Write the structure tokens for this entry.
Amino acid sequence: MTIDPRSPIYVAGHRGLVGSAIWRRLEQAGCSHLIGATSAELDLRDRAATTAFLAEHRPAVVIDAAARVGGILANRDHPTEFLSDNLRIQVNLMDAALEVRVPRLLFLGSSCIYPKFAEQPIRESSLLTGELEPTNDAYAIAKIAGIMQVQAVRRQYGLHWISAMPTNLYGPNDNFDPASSHVLPALIRRFHEAKVNGDDKVVLWGTGTPRREFLHVDDLADACLFLLKHYDDPAPINVGVGEDLTIQELAGLVARVVGYTGAIGNDPTKPDGTPRKLLDVSRLRDLGWAPSVDLEPGLAQTYAWYLDHLGADR
Ligand SMILES: NC(=O)C1=CN([C@@H]2O[C@H](COP(=O)(O)OP(=O)(O)OC[C@H]3O[C@@H](n4cnc5c(N)ncnc54)[C@H](OP(=O)(O)O)[C@@H]3O)[C@@H](O)[C@H]2O)C=CC1
Ligand SMILES: C[C@H]1O[C@H](OP(=O)(O)OP(=O)(O)OC[C@H]2O[C@@H](n3cnc4c(=O)[nH]c(N)nc43)[C@H](O)[C@@H]2O)[C@@H](O)[C@@H](O)C1=O
């Protein structure tokens, strides 16, 4: 499918980690009519405001990168908001997009939709075949409902909407807040602060044994544009790199990039979450897309961004 670069494209959540990367990628592709609104300008939980916004702008493409997002502890401790906010954001957005018959929409889910003990690497067909990981089941259920809404609209109205399931992401504009962030930005900040303060030990949450896969957000943005052009199927499609490492190994890598040379300990009172979450990315690879940013240079680039924007005076 072709994307006319002059057509109006609405990126919901355009200031976030994912939305800002997609915005940059679309600009790079020459897209000249990008639409964005902050949550203060348009709270997508407000149904009437969302309906009015879509009716006013009538985008040709909608990319849903707006969500309540957080790491393992934020998800575990705020399941009510992770369920309710995400359901409302995506239902309001998709209902409003349906009302004006937006022809092309990309819904972003997450690898946490798959069962906690899914066979590895996780194929798209694993969806709804087993129990979810309890630290993020509320968020996962909201995302699964989003996939179903995309499929229902396709079936009933024939619109070319799609869903993509990214693995754990990182890059510029990530959330570096120690309490609510994901592991990679949390470790960049913790190791940096330990180096600056001369601390001799950094403590990781959990046992360090869980395995995770990390995709640079610029690769995800490139994959999103690729999927909008080349993918038109009701099934969600995985987006990842196809390789993972333990949290302990990740910590060693972050320590090296940051230049921290002290000890690394563990806090097993904090949750590990799902033991392994490696996506099977063969469907996307077979379509002709592959990532281009390796983890270590991606980490170095993200650390440089952190220093420039947030961490220089700490
Ligand atoms: N980060 C990750 O590792 C992964 C993320 N994803 C998915 O990617 C998508 C984006 O995540 P990410 O970029 O990391 O998240 P961020 O928290 O960085 O960004 C979320 C964006 O959503 C917007 N938003 C939140 N609530 C509302 C609301 N009520 N109304 C309007 N806008 C709102 C925010 O707007 P504002 O800034 O204006 O407040 C923000 O720009 C999500 O669907 C997430 O599930 C999937 C897999 C992994
Ligand atoms: C993308 C995905 O992200 C979430 O799932 P998760 O992968 O479990 O998230 P996480 O990045 O927070 O943790 C990964 C691992 O890392 C360990 N860990 C060590 N030290 C820190 C640490 O300092 N902070 C954090 N957050 N984790 C740490 C932590 O204990 C865990 O074992 C979902 O809730 C859901 O939102 C989702 O979709």
